[in-house]
Amino acid sequence: MMMMTSKADTPINAENGGVITKKDLVRMFWRSLPMEFSWHYERQMHMGFEFMIGPALKKIYKDDPEGLKEALHRNLEFFNCTAHVSPFIGGITLAMEEINRANDDFDASSINAVKAALMGPLSGIGDSLILGTLRVLAVGIGTSLAVKGNILGPILFFLIFNVPTFILRYVCAIKGYELGANYLEKVQASGLMEKFMLAAAILGVMVIGGMTNELVVAKTALKIGSGKSATQIQSVLDGIMPGLLPLAATGIYYKLLQKKTNVILMIVGTAIFGIICAQFGILAA
Description:
Structural class: mainly alpha
Number of strands: 4
Number of domains: 2
Largest sheet: 2 strands, antiparallel
Distance between the termini: 76 Å
Order of helices and strands: HHHHHHHEEEHHHE
Strand content: under 5%
């Protein structure tokens, strides 16, 4: 008796040796829901990302225990992105892992480079549209009804926020993999992967630079001279390059992280350093 294979069990990229099916991507979609439950300061959502793509990685490297070990270790690097669009990055990652499994000359470091390049732009879009717009809209509608004692308040909040985000997660999981499978394979075959990686690296550096300027705050209150004629050192630094102190602080932390310095010690040390500098008028709020 012949066994019928459903479309959901058929590898999406079978012509190129892919093993990931729609069922695997749906499973990834469901496993993306608790992504932020293990968030922490050192690598943020990396364990949630690993949990999301873990079963698919085991399928890709089914007969390659060493390759699976390397893939699991590789995908435990720093990851932080709006959770609702993270399945898009997960899909692209799985497509690249399949390419890496099939091609011995594939540069595996490109997988994390692409992830890093996508995190910033997708977070900017996701945070603005989902957390900054959709959630506020859902809260406004739900609260306006709830304060009047209407049971539809919490129900509408739940539906307005969660229905679109669930659909978005699902679409991101499918389209992310399809994008990676359809285009990255061609990029690899055409020899353009190096240029693609250079573009991804440039984008990643631009995102990190923008985040450094916006999210890292460091100002000095020191002056040269006294009275009204005193010159603010901060204004001199801004004249040389705006955001110079935040950039320097980011560079210091980057070097410390490269040396595997304990993150908790860095946080405590930063707090103590800030208190001391504020007390002696070295740093300004």
